[in-house]
Write a structure and sequence with these properties.
The chain is α/β, with parallel strands linked by helices and 724 residues long. The radius of gyration is 29 Å and the shape is globular. The structure holds adenosine-5'-diphosphate and zinc ion (ZN) (2 copies).
């Protein structure tokens, strides 16, 4: 018998399936991890197929060395996704396999706990008081785990008792439970008619994609929970995806309440051992629901009954480093394979997803009202130019300050949102305008006051703050726009209440994120200052005020999604206020008070926003009307990378001349970030008429496959979130 094997080498040239002979005393199935001879070494590989014969010269086929695990590591779903993604996203099979079998699975170990009790030894002679302590303790409790005995009592006494045969040991498999410090009260919830209708509609279907458009606080999560309950009833499992970091503590607490140990959490903030255990609980079927960020879509669940992508508009569903993929597409294929529904939920669906409702690809389900029957919070726009006119050059408008005072006096909570982290975003010379940049990445450095350092947010490199301008020598350096740290500092001067900060800097350690949220949740009055991280999903009962300090920041990004992102952010942040029985209020500070994104956000008018935005996209030939494709070429050697880019571009020009009407745009360029982590980056951007994507994309893949670059990597991205 012949095994078809993908070897564990990250090389495009070796991205093939190799044939190996299965020794007669070995049984292999698809998904098994094996050791195979390769060159002069033995390396690890994965069996993707088993066949009777091969066309290959039988005398040249080598034997599989060994099978590495008792059970196949890859599921049938994993293997099929692998081939789908390889085609769809121009990826190497091994990179996808590694998403399915992450390092914490391969390197992890099962944990056993040893329990100790007394044996029924009759002529036990106790020779010391220390031994007696242990014996009396065990007589009292019956059985105790070894670690606790050793921490309480004498180690040598324990050892003597063990040697005498006085103790019996028992091993038990134990699971390392993820941090459950974040608790939410269990509520008995009766679905309202809108929610019930949503659940009934979804459960009627097998394979179908639903866009669940529900205003913030409309009870989308309860809909997910009930659809998943229905899947469990049929003996099936579920995958529930949430954006990168923001939702998990609360969301997982709610799911634990609803499903107990049937839920497994796969999240990067867990310790590797915990992730290993959670993954294995899914693999062996003890847990049937996987919750996690985008790579959780590869969770080893056999029989899927539903897939949920919560906050579907979130940018983190596009993987932006190798392997680059779009989670929605993977989820759709997985739903198709399992003949089950896919739910995309959001209060602010992405323009692309909502457009797919219009074209009939997705079915729309709307939750128009908040579950608590409260109005959505009133959003008040403050014109910051007007503030300057009034003589207020502060970060905070008079309006926001007075609302904050009221909120604190009422012993409620406030959230202050700023779209940026660090003390101030950058350092700038007042004389010549010089802004320090990272040597490797060509992006502005960010000033961090805590350690008085400039940092690159792309490669984490740190720089000393210069005393004078390195370019013109002027000592007059000023700090650019405001960040979270500065806001906290200003608030502390004015308010004598606990102030918490939530951003990438304060949540570096594994538990700090949960800690901050838990503390804030338990403190009133209090103020939470944060970045995007506070925008999503949180359900704090006592928040009555949300302040958006500088709404315009994301409006200025040079990206066709900038306006959409701004609208989404504002709606999401505003949705944090007034979620329980208290009314909420939002103060939005801007220099562009008339911008349509703000006006639509104020009226919670998603449809008006969509109408306006989709028209702009159509006129200007942007997605979803065209496919925006980027070919990214990255390499340590600038010349080599540039040459590869040039080769691809020449071939693309030929293609364009052949199909001129398919190309809206085609241009090679340096990336806005010319260097990242020491690598030079070049890109070709193109926009292709949607209807012809099927013709052009495979041809593009073929061109890139035939280039066979040396020490240069080629990536093809369809509709990347980030063109930096
Ligand atoms: P969303 O996910 O749409 O933002 P959530 O599911 O978080 O909304 O619900 C918002 C709040 O309303 C939560 O506190 C939730 O417990 C509550 N809630 C949801 N559905 C109901 C219901 N049918 N009856 C009462 N409370 C509900
Ligand atoms: Zn850098
Ligand atoms: Zn200068």
């Amino acid at each position: 018998m012949i095994a078809k094997v993908i070897v564990d080498i990250e090389s495009s040239a070796l991205d093939k399936i190799f044939d190996y002979n299965i020794p007669s005393d070995m049984t292999l199935t698809k998904g098994d991890r094996v050791l195979v001879p390769f060159g002069k070494k033995n390396i690890q590989g994965y069996v993707v197929g088993v066949e009777e014969t091969t066309d290959y010269d039988a005398s040249k086929i080598k034997d599989i060395v060994s099978k590495l695990d008792a059970q196949p590591l890859l599921t049938e779903n994993n293997l099929r996704l692998c081939f789908f993604m390889q085609q769809k996203f121009f990826l190497r099979a091994i990179d996808i396999i590694k998403l399915c079998v992450p390092p914490y699975v391969l390197n992890g170990k099962q944990k056993d706990t040893t329990y100790v009790r007394l044996s029924d030894l009759e002529d036990l002679k106790i020779t010391s008081a220390k031994q007696l302590e242990i014996v009396s303790f065990l007589q009292e409790v019956g059985e105790a785990d070894k670690t606790s005995i050793l921490s309480k009592f004498s180690q040598s006494a324990y050892k003597t008792l063990l040697d005498k045969g006085a103790l019996v040991l028992r091993q038990e498999k134990t699971y390392r439970a993820p941090n459950n410090a974040f608790k939410v009260a269990k509520k008995e919830i009766v679905l309202n008619p809108e929610q019930q209708h949503a659940v009934d509609t979804i459960c009627k279907y097998k394979y179908n994609t639903f866009l669940l458009h529900g205003v913030t606080g409309s009870g989308k999560t309860e809909v997910y929970i009930n659809v998943i309950k229905n899947a469990l009833k049929q003996g099936k499992g579920a995958i529930m995806l949430v954006p990168e970091i923001s939702l998990t503590p609360q969301m997982s607490a709610r799911f634990k309440n609803a499903f107990g140990d049937t839920v497994a959490i796969l999240h990067s903030s867990l310790k590797p051992g915990e992730r290993f255990d959670e993954w294995n609980r899914l693999k062996n079927g003890e847990a049937k629901i996987a919750i996690g960020a985008r790579s959780c879509i590869f969770a080893p669940i056999k029989n899927l009954g539903v897939i949920v992508i919560d906050e579907e508009h979130d940018g983190s569903y596009y993987a932006e480093s190798n392997p680059r993929f779009h989670t929605h597409e993977v989820a759709r294929y997985l739903a198709y394979l399992n003949n089950c529904p896919l739910i995309l939920g959001s209060a602010t669906p992405s323009i692309e997803s909502f457009y797919r409702v219009k074209t009939g690809e997705y079915s729309l389900i709307t939750l128009a009202n908040r579950a608590n029957q409260r109005e959505l919070p009133n959003i008040e726009i403050v014109d910051m130019l007007g503030e300057v006119g009034k003589g207020n050059t502060n970060i905070f408008s008079y309006r926001l300050l007075s609302e904050l005072e009221q909120c604190v006096a009422d012993k409620k909570q406030a959230m202050i949102f700023i779209n940026r982290r660090g003390f101030s975003s950058f350092l700038m010379c007042r004389e010549c305008g010089y802004v320090p940049k990272c040597e490797d990445c060509d992006v502005s450095l960010v000033y961090h006051k805590e350690d008085n350092m400039l940092k690159c947010h792309y490669c984490q490199k740190r720089y000393r703050v210069p005393y004078k301008c390195p370019k013109c020598g002027s000592p007059s350096l000023r700090y650019g726009a405001v960040g979270t740290e500065r806001i906290v500092e200003e608030l502390k001067k004015m308010f004598n209440v606990p102030i918490f900060r939530l951003d990438n800097d304060t949540t570096k350690s594994r538990d700090s994120y949960v800690d901050i949220l838990t503390q804030f949740n338990n403190t009133s009055p209090a103020i939470l200052v944060g970045t995007q991280m506070i925008a999503k999903g949180h359900d704090f009962n006592n928040v009555t005020l949300v302040g958006i300090v500088d709404a315009d920041i994301s409006l200025h990004f040079s990206d066709y999604r900038a306006v959409e992102r701004t609208f989404q952010l504002i709606t999401q942040v505003a949705g944090r206020a007034g979620r329980s029985d208290k009314e909420g209020k939002v103060v939005l500070q801007t220099y562009y008070p008339k911008h349509f994104a703000y006006r639509c956000a104020c009226n919670y008018d998603y449809n008006a926003f969509f109408k306006r935005e989709i028209k702009l996209r159509e006129i200007s030939h942007f997605p979803p009307f065209v496919d925006m494709i980027r070919v990214l070429v990255v390499g340590g050697d600038e010349k080599k990378a540039q040459q590869v880019l040039q080769d691809i571009f020449e071939k693309l020009k030929v293609l364009r001349d052949k199909y001129p009407s398919d190309f809206v745009y085609l241009a090679p360029m340096k990336c806005p970030k010319k260097r990242l982590q020491g690598n030079f980056r070049f890109q070709i951007l193109m926009r292709i008429q949607k209807k012809n994507e099927q013709d052009i994309l495979p041809k593009l893949h073929e061109i890139c496959r035939n280039i066979k670059p040396n020490q240069v990597s080629i990536f093809i991205e369809n509709d990347p979130q980030n063109l930096s």
